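Subject: sequence -> C-alpha cells, single chain

Hey, anyone have a minute? Need the predicted structure for the following. Not urgent.
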Amino acid sequence: MTRWQRFTGQALVAAQFALLGVWLVAGPRIAIGIVGQSVQAVGLAVALWAFAVMSIAQGHLFRIAPDPSGHSRLVTWGPYRWVRHPMYLSILLVVGPSWLVDGVTWRAGAFAALAVVLVAKLTFEEHLLVRYFTGYAAYRTRSARLVPGVF
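Reply:
Had a minute. Here:
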C-alpha cells in the first residue's frame, strides 16, 4: 500500500468517526416510533452478525482501516454472502432513522455526508481488495455493495 493510499484510508476513517461522533453528541440517537427503532434494531443485529463472522473468519477482531493485511481472508459467508459491506450498511441503518425523521435539516445533511463518506470508503476499499484477493472480482458479481437489489 502506498503512502497516499494509507493517507486516503486514514482520512476516510477519520471522516466516518467524526460524523459518528456528531451523531453521538448531537442526538437524538434513538429513533422515535416503532418503525425507526425496528430499523435500528436490524442495523445492530447486522453489525453484530458481521462482526462475529469476520472475527471468526479472520481469527481475530477485524480492523477498521480499509486496507487488507497479510493475514486477511476473503469472507463470503454470513451477511457477506449478500452484502460486501454489511458494517457500513448497519451504520446507515442505526444512524438514519434517528436523524431523518425529525425534520432537522442539518441532521439530514450530516446523514447524507456520512453516506457519501461510507460509499467513498467502500469504493476505495474495493479497489484494494480486488487487487489483494484473486476471488474478489467474482465475489463482486454475486453480492451487493451495500443494499441487496439496489446498490
